[in-house]
């Protein structure tokens, strides 16, 4: 039986010189914790790896413990299986990622829910910002030509934002491709 591929989305590393994490050391940490075929994408904390375990809060907690021990600071971690990640990408609005928009995916860490985030969502700017709920994520876009007028920074300043991690649409779709390639290689 093949071992499923997952992606770990680490929050807040290598951002503005804070919480520096070497990608080689990150891969070593995953291997030392017993996860297979670990590899990173970009410098912002995207780790593809294999495990027979389910992508759940216990797996996330185990990874967070291993990361804390290795790097000496807390690194909030969200894990999605290949199928869960693919479902999130597939559910995006049709125009998400279009040339006229700057689009991102805000991944929500359990036990926080998408509905709970939407209930707290500050007022965004009409004609500039748009949001849509998805499985375990919120799709956010702003019109490129008006990006300086976005109000999404209001959400980013709220405590609830600490339980989310953001990936650009380009990075999110590339991660899906890498997950698919890993599955197809087996």
From TrEMBL:
Gene3D superfamilies: bacterial protein sp0830 like, SP0830-like domains. It comes from the Bacteria. This is Uncharacterized conserved protein, DUF1697 family.
């Amino acid at each position: 039986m093949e071992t499923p591929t997952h992606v770990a989305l680490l929050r807040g590393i290598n951002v503005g010189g804070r919480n520096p994490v070497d990608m080689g050391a990150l891969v070593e940490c995953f291997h030392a914790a017993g996860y297979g075929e670990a590899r990173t994408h970009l410098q912002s904390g995207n780790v593809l790896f294999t495990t027979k375990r389910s992508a759940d809060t216990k797996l996330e907690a185990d990874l967070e413990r291993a990361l804390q021990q290795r790097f000496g600071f807390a690194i909030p971690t969200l894990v999605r299986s290949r199928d869960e990640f693919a479902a999130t990408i597939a559910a995006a609005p049709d125009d998400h990622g279009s040339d006229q928009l700057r689009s991102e995916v805000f991944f929500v860490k359990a036990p926080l829910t998408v509905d709970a985030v939407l209930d707290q969502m500050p007022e965004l700017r009409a004609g500039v910002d748009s949001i849509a709920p998805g499985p375990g994520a919120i799709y956010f876009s702003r019109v490129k030509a008006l990006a300086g007028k976005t109000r999404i920074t209001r959400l980013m300043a709220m405590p609830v934002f600490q339980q989310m991690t953001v990936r650009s649409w380009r990075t999110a779709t590339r991660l899906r491709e890498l997950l698919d390639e890993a599955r197809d290689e087996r």
